[in-house]
């Protein structure tokens, strides 16, 4: 029997209209554009307004991807949504988006793998397609991380933004996705986490509620080291070497982490998609947003080889090597 691959038909993305620049932040946080830009590469981020949700951004990104693919929502047989900021506890945001798109009946679920959520979702979708279970799958990464940012905490609040990206995958005789690698190590929980939730309770400290805790310098070190071995593993799994890659589409957390991975792959920055300056860290939204920007700007073309990678809370880390 011929091998089945999953292939990206089209991409889409969505950002909140409201933009918060580093200069805007300087007005109410003890920080500076110089500090933020030199440490992270970030110049601005998009931020949701009151009432705007992860599901709103996800629905818009998904509709744009479906339109670009020429696929009707009713023809989907699976929706997987990577998010760590769902609209409500349940139903899953994937179910909320499914109904708004009009895809009722197909399987739909969320994946919580923090910043690796989209790449995890892509890896799972690929397995569904390769097994013959699904033919057309919508994969989304969507977040409103600024909903759990404490705007008085300068170590974290300058780093994050909101946004969503999506791809439509279809079963194909030709690649497609060559390899995906998914990993986690729960032993590093304390370095990057949000300690509140349903089972432990929502109020841990007065006036703080739901907020991100992060040991930035430690996360940085582990991320660089882990991504180094991840890209090697992914190339091996696909039977390729770095010279066959056309583009690196990394998680957009910090330009210095991105540059370290590019260096490891011996890729010039001209072959790396960078959107962290405009979007900041949108967690699960980051990789599909960068992919959609690269496709719609004409940088990424059909037939090119792309390496997608992400690292986030858990820790989780994941990659996909594919022919677009
Ligand atoms: N503005 C001005 N000064 C600041 C700010 C700010 N926003 N935040 C911290 N500082 C100060 C600190 O207080 C410290 O001051 P001190 O030297 O007087 O004590 C100084 O700047 C240096 O702080 P460091 O934490 O050492 O700065 P560093 O160069 O490590 O950069 C950063 C911090 C940007 C958080 C970096 O460590 C990083 O990006 N880490 C990765 C974290 C990350 O990306 N997390 C997201 C999720 S995981 C992922 O996506 C990879």
Automatic annotation (TrEMBL):
One Pfam family it belongs to: ACP_syn_III_C
Cited InterPro entries: ACP_syn_III_C, ACP_syn_III_N, FabH, Thiolase-like
Residue span of region ACP-binding: 252-256
Catalysed conversion reaction: malonyl-[ACP] + acetyl-CoA + H(+) = 3-oxobutanoyl-[ACP] + CO2 + CoA
Enzyme class name: transferase
Pathway(s) served: Lipid metabolism; fatty acid biosynthesis
Family: Belongs to the thiolase-like superfamily. FabH family.
PANTHER family noted in UniProt: 3-OXOACYL-[ACYL-CARRIER-PROTEIN] SYNTHASE, BETA-KETOACYL-[ACYL-CARRIER-PROTEIN] SYNTHASE III, CHLOROPLASTIC
Self-association and partners: Homodimer.
Name of the protein in its database record: Beta-ketoacyl-[acyl-carrier-protein] synthase III
Organism of this sequence: Dyella dinghuensis
Gene expressing this chain: fabH
């Amino acid at each position: 029997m011929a091998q089945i691959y999953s292939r990206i038909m089209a991409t889409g993305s969505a950002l909140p209209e409201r933009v918060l620049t580093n200069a805007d932040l300087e007005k109410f946080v003890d920080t500076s554009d110089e500090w933020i830009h030199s440490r992270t590469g970030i110049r601005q981020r998009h931020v949701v307004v009151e009432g705007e949700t992860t599901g709103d951004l996800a629905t818009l990104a998904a509709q744009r991807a479906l339109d670009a693919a020429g696929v009707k929502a009713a023809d989907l047989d699976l929706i997987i949504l990577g998010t760590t900021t769902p609209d409500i506890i349940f139903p899953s945001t994937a179910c909320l988006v499914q109904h708004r798109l009009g895809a009722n009946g197909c399987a739909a679920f969320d994946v919580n793998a923090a910043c690796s959520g989209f790449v995890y979702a892509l890896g799972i979708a690929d397995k569904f397609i390769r097994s013959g279970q699904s033919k057309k799958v919508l994969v989304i990464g969507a977040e409103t991380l600024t909903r759990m940012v404490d705007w008085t905490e300068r170590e974290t609040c300058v780093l994050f933004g909101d946004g969503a990206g999506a791809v439509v995958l279809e079963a194909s005789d030709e690649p497609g996705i060559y390899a995906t690698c998914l990993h986690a190590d729960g032993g590093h929980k304390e370095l990057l986490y949000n300690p509140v939730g349903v089972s432990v309770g929502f109020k841990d400290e007065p006036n703080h509620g739901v907020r991100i805790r992060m040991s930035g310098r430690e996360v940085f070190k582990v991320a660089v080291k882990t991504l180094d071995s991840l890209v090697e593993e992914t190339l091996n799994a696909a039977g390729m070497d770095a010279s066959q890659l056309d583009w690196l589409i990394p998680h957009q957390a910090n330009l210095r982490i991105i540059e370290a991975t590019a260096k490891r792959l011996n890729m010039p920055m001209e072959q790396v998609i960078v959107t962290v300056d405009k979007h900041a860290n949108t967690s699960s939204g980051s990789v599909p947003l960068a992919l959609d920007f690269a496709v719609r700007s004409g940088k990424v073309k059909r037939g090119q080889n792309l390496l997608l990678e992400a690292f986030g809370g858990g820790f989780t880390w994941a990659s996909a090597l594919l022919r677009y």
